[in-house]
Structure formats: C-alpha cells, structure tokens
Amino acid sequence: MPILHSIIHRIDLAGEQPARLVAAEAEATPSPALDELLAGVNSAYHGKTKAWGHFAAGSRTATALGAYLDGETDFVSVSRELAQRLTEMLGEHLSVGGHLLLAHYRHGDAEYLSLALLHHREGWGIDADGAIVAANQLNLAQLSLAARLDIRQWRAETPSKQYLSWLRDRGGKKFAEAFAELLGAEEGIDAGGETRTLLKAFSDYVEQEDLADDQAREKTEALLDYASDQARRGESITLEALSEVVDDHDSKAFYEHIRHLDYGLSPEIPPDKKALNQFRRFTGRAGGVSISFDSHLLGSSVEYDETSDRLIIKQVPKQLKEQLKGR
C-alpha cells in the first residue's frame, strides 16, 4: 500500500476555547510505523457504518482536491485548507479534538485519498527498567470522522455514484449532516437497502431453482463469505463476481436472474454488515417434513410460537398452495 503523500495536523478542542488548528509544516516522514497506522485506520474504517455517494455540483472540497490532482496546488496546501474548514466545523459539534490524518495512497490497482480524525486515550507501558509509565495512545476504535475517495472511480470517463464514502455512525445526525455538507457530498446509494434487495433477489433465486437444503446452504455461505470479505476490505460487491461465487457451474445464472427480474440493483453494491449479519437460512427436516426459510422472514411472513411449538407460515408459496388446493 504505497503512500504517495501524507500529513498529520492537530486540532485542539478544550472547554470553552474556540477550536484551533495546529497545522503541520510539512508532509509526514515515510516509515513502517506510518504504513501500519494507515492500515489500522483503514481496518477500523471498513468496520464502521458509512454513507456512500459522490460530490455534488459546486463542491468546494471536490474543486480543491481536483486542483491538487491536476498539479495546480500541492498536497500540504490543500490539506491545510481542508483541515481549517474541518476545525471550524468540529468546534460546533465535538468537545474533543485529535490528530487529523490525510493520506494519498495506492492499494492494488486503486488509488485513494483518505482522511480520519484520530482521538487519543490514556494508556500504560513498561519502560526498559520494568517500571509502569503513562503512555498516550491513538484510539482507532473510536473514529468519529473519516472519509475515503476512490480517485480512479471519481476521475473515470463515466464516474460511478458511489466513489466517496464517509462515516455517519458517531456524533449524531447533525454532525453527520455537517460533515457531508463540508465534503459537498450527496448519497448516491443506500447500502443497507441495496444489500437487503440483493439478499431478497438471492432468496428468490434459491426458491426458483428449487435447490436442496444442502445446496441452498452452500450457496448462502458462499454469498455471505464473499460479501463479508468485501466489507472487511472496504470494497463493493460486484454482481458479476458474486454470480460466479454463487454458482461455479453456471457463473452467469444468478446475474441473469437479477437482470431479467429487474430488481433495480446497481452493478456494484457497498455491503452493509448489519444486513449481512441478519441474513441466514433456517432449515430443518423431520418426520417427512422439510422446512427452509430466510431468517429475515421470521417475525413477518413466518412466526414461531415457542409455547405451543408451532411454526406459522403467513404467506404460503404459490406452488405449494396449488398443490394443497388440489387435495
């Protein structure tokens, strides 16, 4: 993960005093520790709830970053301008400051610009003499403000609507809205809604193919493994790649199912970890009865009465309904 440019500014917030930016004079010195810090920040960021979208027309942040990428200004200058605007915004919404890391780096074939506000926490260490000493530590688990820009997607001839992501799970709704406004960002896709629609499409596909329980379970695990891995890496689910994972014998089958039934899904979907964690199939077979249904149906189309040990199916599948009527 080569870091092309990086810098760390400090934002002081204390009591009733106005927020103050202590800007770095120069870029951060490359080092293995800096590489590890960025990797840790990225790992923490991927595990957070994010909004996905793009720059709105007239975005001041987009204009500044575009000037930097076009060589019209340098990284230090553009980072200071952005840090100053962030300092003013943070003074209205947070009570604690930290260090603001901005990095321009490559990862595989992709190229990113990331920013993250790093808070501190008190900790302890042991010195060379075995004595316990106080040690101020970065608290990566408590990211309150961070964003990542996929440069190649943004600068592509036909840019996507989800090349920009930013945190929205800490600090409250007003804080998240203020951060999005500062970025000049608009949500281009609802990650949770898209993920749930994808899982609904998969459930329909499994039902349409009338798969055996073990086959359905195997395909479900393949889907969740792929989607969860993409979420850990901070990458989108690609429908064509997912189709290959779901069925290695007919790699286009699931993709064609989605396309023909027009679920309205984007070709690439940011995975929503909450939706993925809630999705799995309940299956069981006993006494000539075989039952299989998706967990998200429990409490809606399917109810379980533990007291009487009864499973109530509210929406009987059409094919089963016709068979029952025939008897």
TrEMBL record:
Major localisation: cytoplasm
Localisation per UniProt entry: Cytoplasm, Nucleoid
This protein's UniProt keywords: Cytoplasm
Keyword Cytoplasm recorded: yes
Cited Pfam families: NA37
Domain of life according to the entry: Bacteria
Record bears the keyword Cell division: no
InterPro entries: Nucleoid_associated_NdpA
Family label: Belongs to the YejK family.
Name this protein carries in UniProt: Nucleoid-associated protein YejK
UniProt organism field: Halomonas salifodinae
Lineage: Bacteria, Pseudomonadati, Pseudomonadota, Gammaproteobacteria, Oceanospirillales
Gene that produces this protein: yejK
